[in-house]
Predict the structure.
Amino acid sequence: MIHRCRCGDDAAWNTLIGYVSGAIWGTIRQRGFSLPQDLREDVFQDVCVQIHASLPRFRGECSLRYYAARIAVNACINYYRKYRKDRGNLSLDEPGSESSIPLRDRIPSPDGDPSQQVLARADQADLDAAMNRLSVRERALLVGHFIEGLSYEEISNGLNITPKHAAVITFRAIHKIRRVLAEK
């Protein structure tokens, strides 16, 4: 299938995207939770473009779903950084400007207790800060195992380490996060 995609077979490309779309959307839902829906769709499109562009370099050392999920993680991080920079630029005068965030995305949902929503956002912000203190490898292992549901075997193939080493790094990363969260 990958060879046919590299040769420009549209049917193979559609099959490939169908095969990896669950991993991509799962990653976007977990990593891009704070992005508005339209930006999540942009992330998906960007991931598809990146997969297409990188297929000639894909060596098959990891599963295609893992490969797509890793690209999605990096795309979410890039979009989140850009979104975070633009987030403070709320404009009521120019609701269509690119640097503004729609007001509906700033108003809490009427569902649920607003104080619980604020606490959940604060907890998520603390977790994001703790995750940002981890190395790229540690974050990749945590996201791959706990968010994407990949086995240590699948993750280790993508990172060129043994499954046991992947489990050890994951265990240590969890303890780092616990220490960082306990400091708050």
Observations:
- The radius of gyration is 19 Å.
- Residues 92 and 103 are 8 Å apart (CA to CA).
